[in-house]
Structure formats: C-alpha cells, structure tokens
Design a protein that fits this description.
CATH architecture of the largest domain: Up-down Bundle
Largest sheet: none
Number of helices: 9
CATH topology of the largest domain: AhpD-like
Radius of gyration: 16 Å
Helix content: 55-70%
Order of helices and strands: HHHHHHHHH
Number of strands: 0
CATH class of the largest domain: Mainly Alpha
Strand content: under 5%
Structural class: mainly alpha
Oligomer: single chain
C-alpha cells in the first residue's frame, strides 16, 4: 500500500487535472507515478518538462531506456524496472538486452559505455575518477553525451526515490528486482 497515495483528478486543481488528462490522452493511462507527482504540481510539471526536453537530445529512446533500466536496477526500484522493461520493449529491446541494461551492460560498444557510466554515476554518487572519465571518453562518450547521461541519470533518480518514499503501487507488468 502506498505511503503517498496518487491524487485523483477530482482532488487536483484545474491545471493539474488538464495535465493528467493530457498524459492519459498520450499514454492511454495515467501511471500511478504521475498521479503521485500530482500531489505536488510543480514536481509533476518539472518531471514532464524534463522528460520532454530529454527526448530532444542525442540519446535515442533505446539509449534512454538503457539508462533508466541501469539506474532502476542500481537503486532497486521495482516500479521503474517494471515500467522501463515495458518501455524498453517498445523501444525495440528484447529480454536479454533489457537484462543486460539492468546489469549496466550492452553488446553494442557505445550502449555498453552509456549503461556502464550510468551505473558508475549512481554507485559513486557522481564522483568518477579521472581514469574512469578518460575511459568513458575513449569508449566514445564525448562531453555532450556525458552531460546527457548525467541528466538522464538524475531524471531517473527522481522517479526511483519518489517511488521508494511513496511506495508507489506498480501499475505495469511486475518485474522482479532480482536478476
């Protein structure tokens, strides 16, 4: 049971209700995470704005899902693992690729570097050594891609931590945290 219950649209102001209705029109549902963010409309709007902005970067939808899965696994967020396993499939990933991403790996060299950097950022709280930084650069991550990876990691930490604290009810096909 949730500690912070999702807001029903009849419990939100007109602007937040309109935002949630737009989410429903786009996704076909309002995920519990979004309704939970609706308890703080500034958080909901900030989340949606950053989500939209990150789609305009150089990272592909698949690469953003790799980051989301790697971060969710590193933070043991069952809600996000469940949501992003489904979204990963929608981005063209198969089960093996989803599990690799959860381990911070990929068969493609660039995607491997992206996943590995995301996990390193989480585990080391952003404190990469010079050697690690140079290794990521040597693996094909330029300064711009590294900044985008950092932004995507931070974005996913926001959802992971919200779900941990709120104990958001998972409304996606359930994925076990254990690999």
């Amino acid at each position: 049971m949730s500690r912070i219950s999702p807001a029903a649209t009849d419990q939100t102001d007109a602007s937040t209700t309109a935002t949630l209705n737009a989410v429903k029109a786009k996704l076909g549902m309002v995920p519990n995470l979004f309704s939970t963010f609706a308890r703080a409309p500034a958080a909901l709007n900030g989340y949606l704005s950053l989500s939209e902005a990150l789609t305009t970067g150089r990272l592909t939808a698949r690469q953003r899902e790799i980051i989301a899965l790697a971060v969710a696994q590193a933070n043991t967020c069952q809600y996000c693992l469940s949501a992003h396993s489904m979204l990963g499939k929608m981005a063209g990933m198969n089960t093996a690729e989803i599990n690799d991403a959860r381990r911070g790996k990929a068969t493609n060299a660039l995607e491997h570097a992206i996943a590995n950097m995301a996990v390193s950022i989480v585990h080391q709280r952003g404190m990469l050594t010079d050697a690690e930084f140079l290794a990521f650069k040597a693996s094909g991550l330029d300064d711009g891609l590294m900044i985008e990876i950092i932004a995507n990691v931070a974005f996913n930490i926001l959802t992971n931590y919200t779900n941990h604290i709120a104990v958001t009810d998972v409304d996606f096909p359930l994925v076990d945290v254990a690999l």
